[in-house]
């Protein structure tokens, strides 16, 4: 992804990934991944 000034919550990021990258992850799964990456 290119650098953007905007921040996204997990629901918004889930929708953005599905639309722009054809990657389908639930908001819960995105939260789990981000927590692990800390």
Structure description:
By secondary structure, this protein is mostly helical. It has one domain. The protein has helices at 10-21, 27-37. Helix 1 crosses helix 2 (27-37). The two termini are 19 Å apart.
User: Helix count?
Assistant: 2
Contiguous runs where pLDDT drops below 50 for at least 5 residues? none
Q: Which series of helices and strands comes N to C? A: HH
Overall pLDDT confidence: 93
Main β-sheet description? none
Per-chain topology:
Elements: H1 10-21, H2 27-37
Can I get a quick summary?
This protein is an all-alpha fold and 38 residues long. It is 61% helix and 0% strand.
Output the keywords.
38 residues, mainly alpha, 2 helices, 0% strand, globular
